[in-house]
Amino acid sequence: MQLKGCSRKEAEQYIEGGWVRVDGALVEEPQHRVDHQTVTLDPEASLMELTAVTLVVNKPAGHTDGLDEPGRKKAPPDARQLLTAAHHWSTDPSGQRVLKRHFQHLEADVELETGASGLVVFTQDWRTTRKLSEDMATMEHEYLVEVQGEVAPEALKPIGYALKDPRLTLPAVKVSVSSSTPEMSRLRFAVKGSHPGLIAYLCETAQLQMLGIKRVRLGRVSLADLPAGQWRYLAPWEKF
User: Fold this and answer.
1) What value, to the nearest 5°, has the Cα angle with vertex 27 and ends 23 and 29?
2) For an engineered disulfide with 89, which of 124, 168, 213, 232 has Cβ 3.0 to 4.6 Å away?
3) What value does the mean pLDDT take over residues 184-204?
4) 210 and 226: one domain?
């Protein structure tokens, strides 16, 4: 408070914002006790950066999406376990400093099957939660799906027939062959809304054996080069 001439509340915010060092060591806990140590405040310190953050995670297959209640017995690993400084993507383009407070009060807003990998979201920002909740039915999810063997475009016709069948009332889906070899083919699905199990059902309809599924885009936010098991900040210029 003496260094900045601010209130006690503001002093706590400077500490939580990662601007205060005690004997050269970064301190992020306002309750940290100080006796005769040297306390310094970063000259660039600003409370303008104390905004809620959103984290984009590349969930590995076999991890849950963070929506389950913690503490279940014999539960698979949770994607929340990846939300640590050690799993932060070293080339995160956002430029955001990693702070302890960024791992608190995070909401998981978008479901993804445990067997699938790819993009999941954790956020502190109520506006992001509202956006993902209210627009989920119309937001496009893009997946890359690996299936066994070589697949020609004609092999996808049963999927098209199922999507047009009024008895099934399926959501809007676009599917195409991204690449194909005798050993494995990669299909691209674009689905309106979150529908766990839908892609597996459509592949079964076309007698395609799924090997893996990965969500690579949610709305306008892409997974891009984010490695599996790591996370990055949603950059200021990104919008779902």
Assistant:
1) 140
2) 232
3) 96
4) no
**Domain at 151, CATH number:** 3.30.70.1560
Task: Name residues whose C-beta falls within 8 Å of residue 151's C-beta, 6 or more positions apart in sequence.
Answer: 177, 180, 185, 187, 208
Q: pLDDT tens-digit profile of 142-182?
A: 999 999 999 999 999 999 999 999 999 999 999 999 999 99
Expressed as residue numbers, the domain containing 202 is 140-218
pLDDT band for position 1 (cuts 50, 70, 90): very low
pTM beyond 0.85: no
Number of domains within the chain: 3
Strand partners, 122: 55, 108
160: part of which helix (H) or strand (E)?
helix 157-164
Cα-Cα-Cα-Cα torsion 145, 151, 177, 158, nearest 10 degrees, comes to -90
Q: Measure the CA–CA gap between 88 and 77, rounded to whole angstroms.
A: 18
User: Tokens representing 237?
Assistant: 């210029």
